[in-house]
Amino acid sequence: MSLPDNSVWTRVEVGLNALAVDPVGLGGLWLRARSGPVRDRVTEALGGLPLPLKRLHPSIGDDQLFGSIDLTATLSSGKLVERAGILAQPAVLVLPMAERTQPGLAARLAGALDQGTGHCLIALDEGAEPGETLPEALTDRLALHVDLDALPWGETDRIVLDQAALAEARDRLPGIRASGKVLEDLTLLAVRLGVHSLRAPMLTLRTARALAAIAGSDEVGVDDLKAAVELVLAPRATQFPEAEDDQPPEQPPDQPPPEPEPEKGEQDEGEGQSLDDLPLQDILLEAARATLPADLLAMLAAKRANRGGGGNSGAGAKRKGNRRGRPIPSRRGRLETGARLDVISTLRAAAPWQTIRKQESRFERSLHIRSDDFRIKRFEEKSDRLLIFVVDASGSAAMTRLAEAKGAVELLLAEAYARRDHVALVAFRGEGAELLLPPTRSLVQTKRRLAALPGGGGTPLAAGLKVALEVAIQSKGRGMTPTVALLTDGRANIALDGSANRTLAGEDAERMATAIRLQGFPSMVIDMGQRPERSLKALADTLGAPYIPLPRADANRLSSAVSAALDA
């Protein structure tokens, strides 16, 4: 089978037919599309797959997946009654909001697919940004990858699966043969496309076998492989494949020249030839190139940048507790101060042991619960991120640097409402430093404080870092995730005691930088001088922070540099 054209919707239709023939072998479909009528046309066709549909939730628990004790039936009957989980029977698992899948759930679903128990996963990825995507543990196991975000409604059509033809193809599938060279060529092609997973060429071959079964063939052909490459390998490509040198190698002088090949008229191209005789890798490479988007490099760069920030560039660290946040599975624990008992999970843990405990107990009780059965509720929340700007307000050029810092703070704060960022401002000059702007998200208050920011005097760098450390410790105690951004253009010349001693000032600054690093606070050093300063590079190394030289930086460049450093 070959794709009649190179449209996205054609690949969707052909991919769904292949998935209906071999849903377990292909693993499933990663469908990246926002909720809407275009995606609905794909989900409506899922009813034609030869397995029942079961809908999951990104925060589904192990009890629903693998089964658990039916507490109501167990207590009423006095016997252990178990309830089967979703994974107990083969099914098509439909996972909406798949971009929110936690690593734990991704690992469990990946394990279910690897066990070959008859499951097929349809991941509906609704991510709005390139970094909001399905975990790699699942994308690696799903053969078909389709992106419908840019597909208009007018280029789609209703998908109808021919159940009779697909049933015949499923019966024919076990007898489909493939040449021994095919898997080797697919593996080499995957390397040239930058696909380093060994599952990818194997899934491509499985897809080609399914397409050959649909076409009524007994052996995988070139058209089947070309269509499979467009469906499986091309969407996984991470680089443009470079053409190899087509010139033949030079013959040694002692060997006779090769015999001339027959003219095209003597033998029709491809007629009577097997896959072993054809330049299969080059043919499949051209098929993959025709499917690759023109802006592949830009798309990959955007994905890498967002992946560096974990897909949540504005969120702080994850914290687990027992009071508030998103519920996560409860764990065994003690009833200490502040702990909240998960009654249902506790009863489920105690139910299997009731018969034994009643026989061993000397007291007549309807329910025997021990401390080992206690399950404590747990929650997970993401803390707000705090950007602490430590600005050098000393010297004759202070007003220029302060104006740049003011603009950068205002630009970053304008995005704080969507990114959940707070901003604090520490200025150091003269003999000390002061906190001019406590942690805030108020744009009005920020502009008012920035307007009266003073400048001039020496460079008490250690004092600025000390105030920043104090603010970071306080904000961490309030549940925030602080990050220190140091903006300066020169070396420290005022020590912590206020004396004008450059050597002592440098030592004090190094001690404060070491203290910030030991506390685990991320930071960055932005050198705004006309020339890079070696001492600031050494200070960045002490902080374990990136060193960013930005001579004559304006507010936009400064804001972009800070955002890029935070996401990296």
Automatic annotation (TrEMBL):
SUPFAM superfamilies the UniProt entry points to: P-loop containing nucleoside triphosphate hydrolases, vWA-like
Ranges annotated as biased composition (Pro residues): 249-259
UniProt-recorded name of the protein: Mg-protoporphyrin IX chelatase
CDD domains reported in the protein's UniProt record: vWA_Magnesium_chelatase
Function: Involved in bacteriochlorophyll biosynthesis; introduces a magnesium ion into protoporphyrin IX to yield Mg-protoporphyrin IX.
Pathway: Porphyrin-containing compound metabolism; bacteriochlorophyll biosynthesis
UniProt-annotated stretches for the region Disordered: 239-275, 305-332
Keywords: ATP-binding, Bacteriochlorophyll biosynthesis, Chlorophyll biosynthesis, Ligase, Nucleotide-binding, Photosynthesis
Entry similarity comment: Belongs to the Mg-chelatase subunits D/I family.
UniProt GO BP: bacteriochlorophyll biosynthetic process; photosynthesis
Listed Basic residues bias regions: 317-332
Domain VWFA as annotated: residue spans: 386-566
Reactions catalysed according to its record: protoporphyrin IX + Mg(2+) + ATP + H2O = Mg-protoporphyrin IX + ADP + phosphate + 3 H(+)
GO molecular function, one term: magnesium chelatase activity
Pfam families: AAA_lid_2, VWA_2
EC number from the UniProt entry: 6.6.1.1
NCBIfam families: BchD-ChlD, PRK13406.1
